[in-house]
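Slack export, channel: ligand-projects

TW: morning all. Re-posting the request from yesterday since it got buried. We need the structure predicted with the small molecule present, not the apo form. The ligand is nicotinamide-adenine-dinucleotide; the SMILES is in the block with the sequence. No rush, but it would help planning for next week.
GE: picking it up
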Amino acid sequence: MSEPLGPQSTDTQIGEAYRNRVALITGGAGCIGSNLCHALLEGGISQLVVIDDLSAAERWNLPPSDRVAFLEGSILDRSLLTRAFAFRPDFVFHLAAFFANQNSVEHPEADLQVNGLGTLRVLEQARATGVGRVVYASSGCSVYGSQAPLPLHEEFVSLHLNTPYQITKLLGELYSNFFHNSYSLPVVRARLFNVYGPGEIPGRYRNVIPNFIYWAQQGQPLPITGTGKETRDFTYVGDIVSGLLRCGVLPSAVGEAINLASGVETKVIDLAQQVNALIGNPAGIRHAERRRWDTHSRRRAAIDKARMLLGYQPRTDFASGLRHTLAWFQNHRKEIAASARF
Ligand SMILES: NC(=O)c1ccc[n+]([C@@H]2O[C@H](COP(=O)([O-])OP(=O)(O)OC[C@H]3O[C@@H](n4cnc5c(N)ncnc54)[C@H](O)[C@@H]3O)[C@@H](O)[C@H]2O)c1
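GE: finished. pasting the full token output, ligand included:
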């Protein structure tokens, strides 16, 4: 008889727990979702159901497979959700979101619709169909606000948030708690930090790393919107996927909020210099106006809880992660040029 799964389980054992099962990924064509799809397919999942309205992603980002049922549309669409849940998923990874801070400042109602009502509808369907596990992608850069002491621990949550996105990512956690506490829905709140890696197409509302790579490839100076000394806890998407897979099957994760991060601080100016050096961009950096909402000077997550409950271990150092990301850009040059949304 095989040993029960626990934090000590290897990645292979965790992957095997998904074999011959069914998973639904909302937002599955996005950066994290597409990487999660690859991992689940490699692990032998029998059926993947992906809902994505392609508002921030491209179909080509999804792995081609006859085990993927792609449902194009919004999580706000009840009939689409009913079709997705008719596959009887064992696991739901709820990643679809209106992304991210600046976008939400410009479009607060759309943010509330997708991140608030959309999350509520996904949770309602999960409860109605008796899903075995829901993993909600929360945001560590949102829920802790800008005043929390470092490293950021799970028990500190701020009510002083700076953008509609930060508010609605916290709202998603509150709904998750409600469904867990009132209906015993097995939900895990994974708090992700500054995820980067293959699969994130650059664009106006996207994260700093894909945009820096894109501009550096064009020989443009990289804009620093602050002093450059601000730090972020950049986390490679492969490590995030490994953490999410653990959240999906380990009993110890149920009902918990768990940081998934690298636990390492990197200065934005150092990031810019590394990207320029990697690409050979002679244009350097330029200083740009700080965004009003961007008051987080330093970010570094505590990952002891993830280590303890999940056996989570980030494995990709920043330099390797940047190289993998750049390789993805080089291999998808044409698609990225056609899809970048500025
Ligand atoms: N990338 C990060 O740094 C980070 C950090 C913390 C939390 N998160 C969370 O992780 C999740 C995934 O992030 P990501 O980086 O892959 O972002 P992403 O934008 O690449 O992925 C989100 C996906 O959701 C889709 N989507 C948006 N609105 C939708 C709707 N109404 N219906 C269906 N699909 C919709 C988009 O097209 C996109 O493919 C999000 O919930 C995000 O809030 C991300």
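GE: first-pass observations. The first strand starts at residue 22 and ends at 26. Residues 26-27, 29-33, 51-57, 74-76, 95-99, 114, 118, 137, 139, 169, 192, 194-195, 207 surround nicotinamide-adenine-dinucleotide (CB under 6 Å).
TW: perfect, thank you
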